[in-house]
Design goal:
15 strands; alpha+beta; binds 4'-deoxy-4'-aminopyridoxal-5'-phosphate; 6-stranded antiparallel β-sheet; 9-stranded mixed β-sheet; 28% helix; D-amino Acid Aminotransferase, Chain A, domain 2; 2 domains; D-amino Acid Aminotransferase, Chain A, domain 1
Length: 281
């Protein structure tokens, strides 16, 4: 069944939504995006995603083409028109269409696209098998741009080896997953995740989950870790808008927590889902 998508002020069947071949998102990956999870037909962590959107756009000298309340209304209308109960809304903003030139064009109308993806977010999580791969992405990973080829390459490589995902490594230290933040739990029960910098995306789920973990009196340390430390940890997991808290049960062929989801990731996933349902808008 065809979805209804949003493009530059109008709702239309996905087959009719067309963007120019000169769009800078297409030619230069000159655009940023956000993905919000939808539970019970409501949006999770909307404020956080909008704050990061504004920040990403600011770094590349763009602004949000419509107001935040208009964006909220567009999200809600897409949920209604597509009868979306559980899944995600993808939103992309590019600098728009202009003759090809490396210099940012002036006075161009930005392209704003949103579409829904139905997805089961809440069923039992069995655990991911990951392999490590060199982090060959650009130096501003804190900016959520649409240039995702390095991540796409890495994830495809993992799939071709029968694994689920990659953990990216730079200078011997894990940065993050291909589309998620990475965590381990030490044998003493402390949660370790890389500190925020330009080296990783500042995950909105990461912020929410760390806040909940602190409220549960779990100990947290924000610092980089190695693959070897992760392989010797008592648990490992990832977070992202569409995976919530997802256990990692194997890293480079070494089983973690007896190849079963551990208690910390299970608890955090449960609490995050509960709290998200309560605060969804
Ligand atoms: N890191 C990367 C590289 C990602 O693509 C994502 C998913 N957007 C994340 C982390 C997790 O971010 P969030 O929790 O905001 O989805």
């Amino acid at each position: 069944m065809s979805r209804t998508v949003y493009l530059n002020g109008a709702y239309m069947p996905e087959e009719e939504a067309m963007v120019s071949v000169f769009d800078r998102g297409f030619l230069f990956a000159d655009g940023v995006y956000e993905v919000c999870a939808i539970l019970d037909g409501k949006i999770i962590d909307f404020e956080g995603h909008m704050a990061r959107l504004e920040r990403s756009l600011g770094v590349v000298e763009m602004s949000v083409p419509v107001t935040k309340s208009e964006l909220l209304e567009i999200h809600r209308e897409l949920i209604r028109r597509n009868a979306l109960e559980e899944g995600a809304i993808y939103m992309q903003i590019t600098r728009g269409a202009a003759d090809r030139d490396f210099i940012y064009p002036k006075g161009v109308e930005q392209t704003l696209v949103l579409f829904t993806q139905a997805k089961d977010l809440t069923s039992e999580k069995d655990g991911l098998k990951v392999i490590s791969a060199p982090d060959i992405r650009w130096g501003r990973r804190d900016v959520k741009t649409v240039q995702l080829l390095a991540s796409s390459m890495a994830k495809t490589m993992a799939k071709s080896k029968g694994k689920d995902d990659v953990w990216l490594v730079e200078d011997g230290l894990v940065t993050e997953g291909s589309s998620s933040n990475a965590y381990i739990v030490t044998n003493e029960g402390k949660i370790i995740t890389r500190n925020l910098s330009n080296s990783i995306l500042h995950g909105i789920t990461r912020a929410s989950v760390l806040k909940l973990a602190a409220e549960l009196d779990m100990e947290i340390e924000e610092r980089p870790f190695t693959i070897e430390e992760a392989q010797n940890a008592s648990e490992a997991f990832i977070t992202s808008a569409t995976s919530f808290v997802y256990p990692v049960i194997e890293i480079d062929g070494i089983e973690i927590s007896d190849a079963k989801p551990g208690p910390v990731s299970k608890r955090l996933n449960q609490v995050y889902a509960e709290e998200s349902r309560k605060s969804a808008c």
